[in-house]
From TrEMBL:
Protein name: ATP-binding protein
Gene3D superfamilies: Histidine kinase-like ATPase, C-terminal domain (3.30.565.10)
Transmembrane keyword on record: no
Domain Histidine kinase/HSP90-like ATPase: start-end pairs: 41-157
Molecular-function annotations in GO: ATP binding
């Protein structure tokens, strides 16, 4: 079962296209850009790759620089791949990706109902352990909520392009 529930396209008509161009944005923002993206898919590397592409398409609609888009895709894909590799060792499961653009902030949240992340000293030697450090390095803020109920990784960015955009 797959669920895709994007928010209906929201109007962003506070300023005219000419206002946006004169404020330093070379391309006016399309007033139909969706502010939210959400999907629930089976937890597999193949589905993670599909979600990475779809998230990239959504990010392409936002007034982001290439470096910020890359960081968001890198960190979010790492969280999705972690779910596929570790969350459901003995069974199939699901992963939910939720992304939100509000003002000068982009937030992505990856959630599963798997086995949770083992404490540092209790991880198998092959578990890697570099993914969350990588995510922490490329986000402005990261939180991890984990336990027997599963794991939720929330990643927050405040890209310069969005800070400039929301100031205009």
């Amino acid at each position: 079962m797959r669920r895709h529930a994007p928010e209906p396209r929201m109007k962003r008509s506070d300023a005219t296209s000419a206002d946006r161009v004169s404020a330093g944005f070379s391309t006016p923002i399309d007033p139909s850009v969706r502010s939210r993206f959400e999907e629930l898919v089976p937890a597999s590397l193949r589905e993670a790759a599909v979600l990475r592409r779809k998230l990239g398409d959504w990010l392409g609609e936002l007034p982001l620089d290439a470096g910020s888009s890359y960081d968001i895709l890198l960190a979010t894909y790492e969280a999705l791949a972690n779910v596929a590799a570790h969350a459901y060792p003995d069974r199939d499961g699901w992963v939910r990706l939720y992304a939100d653009w509000a003002g000068d902030t982009v937030t992505t949240t990856v959630t599963d109902t798997g086995c949770g992340i083992a404490a540092e000293g209790h991880r198998p030697p092959t578990s890697g352990g570099r993914g969350l450090r990588l995510i922490d390095e490329v986000t402005d803020r990261m939180t991890v909520d984990t336990g027997e109920h599963g794991t939720q990784v929330t990643m927050i960015w405040r890209p310069a392009a969005l800070r400039q955009h929301s100031a205009s």
